[in-house]
Amino acid sequence: MRNYDMTNHLDRLRYVAREMFVWPGGYELGIFIESFGDILCQECVRKEYKHLYREVKCWGMSIECVAGCDFDPGDIICCECQKDLSAYE
Ligand SMILES: [Zn+2]
Questions:
Q1: From ligand 1's centre to the CA of 25, what distance in Å?
Q2: Which of 11, 34, 48, 71 could bridge to 62 as Cys pair (CB 3.0-4.6 Å)?
């Protein structure tokens, strides 16, 4: 695993987009966009990466890394593809 500065929002974005592994137990990684209250799954983060990167870098959009294992089923749904990140694979 590369080194990431997890206090840096761009690094958080990179982390979720690049790290291939699913968290122990088969849970998904994703991001929480604080400004919009939206959750995006890893797949959608990759699809929208350039756009998200620009939002964070140029507009200071705040994001948090999230992992499905920290949430109850139904509490962490991707706003793009409606995937439930807490679903056990
Ligand atoms: Zn998604």
A1: 19
A2: 34
